[in-house]
Write a structure and sequence with these properties.
It is a single chain. This protein is mainly α. It has two domains: 95 residues, His-Me finger endonuclease fold (3-Layer(aba) Sandwich), CATH 3.40.1800; 94 residues, no CATH class. It is built from six helices and two strands. It has a two-stranded antiparallel ribbon with strand order 1-2. Helix 4 crosses helix 5 and helix 4 packs antiparallel against helix 6. The longest helix has 41 residues. The two termini are 58 Å apart.
Amino acid sequence: MTKLIPLTTAELKELREQQWTKQNFKCAILNIRIEADECVLDHKHKLKSEECGGPDGLGCLRGVIHHNVNVFEGKLERLWKRYGLSKVITLPDLLRRCADYIEHPPMEPLYIHPNEKPKKKDLYKRLSKTEYKRICKFYFVWFPNRRVLPKFSKNIFIKDKWDAWLKKANEYNKMKANVFTKIEKELIKKAQTMIKQYDEPVKKVKEKTIKKEIKKRRRRKNV
């Protein structure tokens, strides 16, 4: 039986450099050259109740690998145990079978998963809040008998009447103020006042949310 050699931290560092040189400065898993500050001497983890050594080499060093690979390998082992797979299959066998499954899946690439189906692109652009306000600005000029502005929604697309209104609003927006009559100016002012009133409840909600968040943070600091 081979006698196991316990190492100190200083001896571990020295052995890591020796093994790195022995491996031609390559990661044992990636098989690519790695720098000295990227090297980690990987070891087989064990439970506190288990003894070092044995056929599985528990607690013993295995080789020099890249530090990111070391983290990845450690997480794989923990997940293998967490999900109860260690009771069914060994980790090396699981990884080999995963590789075989990825490279040679049992199904032909024929059916597309619902989550991966290409989404249909909108034929029309959505109306922005700025564009909506521009339309509302001149809405009563076009429809002086109406008392309420059209409601805004994120699902309004620039088509049909909205497309016509936006084009008209863009034209009106370029006009100088002196082009409009006194009545039209009053209607524009009325519309702008109503738009502000629509925005106020939203602003108040946002302000309340911000104030609540500030209070929560202050309470956490005081705890």
